[in-house]
Amino acid sequence: TLTLPKKESSDPLLYLLAALASPKQLTTQKKTAIELNLNGTVITQRNAILRALCTVGPLDIYPLCLLGQSSVAGLVEEMAVVMSNVHSWMSIAATIGKSKKEAALDAKFLNSLNDHLNNFAFLAGTPQPSLADWTVYFSMNNVSVDLNEILQSSGRAVQRWYDATQCSVHDAAESVKDIFNATLLPPIIEFQVQNMLPVFHYPTTTTLAIISTGGSGDNSAADAATADESKADEKGGTKKDSKKAPQQQQSSGGELTDEQKKAAADKRAKKAAEKAAKKKNKAPAAKQEGSDEYNISAFDIRVGKILKAWEHPEADKLFCEEIDVGEDKPRQIASGLRPFYKLEEMQNQRVLVLCNLKARPLLGFASHGMVLCASNADHTSVEFAVPPEDAAIGERVMFDSFEGDPEAENKMNKKKILEKVAPDLKTNGDGIVVWKGKVSKTSAGPCKAINGMKDAQVA
Q1: With a threshold of 0.90, does the pTM exceed it?
Q2: What are the percentages of helix, strand and coil residues in the chain, rounded to 5?
Q3: How far apart are alpha carbons 458 and 425 in whole angstroms?
């Protein structure tokens, strides 16, 4: 049970998290002082309440992942480090605007923030906004200064982070607009696109800055940069240089001759033809050519069998497993399944395993892969996604129309392929595992949720 302050405007973040939490797992009431009664444990400190709320229902699973999925384990490397970072940034957020001069938003703070965000997409090192980002965002908007003016003159990294964070907050509020008053949110701050884009440096040219290419006006094209080529001294030039054929020299003014333009065009056409020929003879790729979109063939999903399972000694939600996926030795994988399965139900269970994930330490246990399960919207019901009984151990699960090779482990992490592809991995109305409606298949038939859970997310 969560006790909220009587005025919604006094703590819009707390009200937003309460609206996003599953109503089946959280009840609310209003009084003067806030507190959270979590299974008999009473919490009164605000930051602790915010973190505890993020373990309830959908707040730490895709698409929110406000604790970097550390409460369910498996998708973010070194979840203990993530949680430590979240704690630290929430403590910093609590100090913003507390001094008389609002010193926490001075140039020194913003420069430090920009330096940090030059190396991380978001504050706690997560791939998308976490509770750390949300608390700092709301705290920055709780100061009595012109935040818009301050941010417009801040660093690119701060502007990029702020824009992504404000969008995630407003998108989340939109999903619960029937029970949350969106007018409590800070107004959207618009940034000039050219100020948020990167600057590229080339060794032989002057700096080139990408600018907005609007349909009209002075910004419709970028000024070309001139090459930093050294010019020969008029008296120092050799006879060989002076005898170059006119057709090999650039015309006055630095422009290419017609012959040079034709040669460059022929070279581009040849490269394009070679590329097209290679593409024609190549199997369908996990990534569609010329786009940032990946498909399910990027995943290396295999038929596996749990040979041994035990409870993680330091995490009450984790099982540790040794799983045979057809390799020389079993994979060690940690799964957040203790709230849903008994230990004896894990032994010898046939499962689907996403194998091309980098090994990641989960509280001292190196987990190398992920056991796929179907779950309902609020994550209160979870069940194994399983292969047919006759499917061979180690066999790769394919999907209709997608036959490409899986991506490498390091690319899965670097390109955030899991986050891009996983949302469309589901069960259909018959409990069959599908991706964008395309049915999973093995040599023995399709895969399914073990108890037939329909229209569920698979992750």
Answers
A1: no
A2: 35, 20, 50
A3: 5
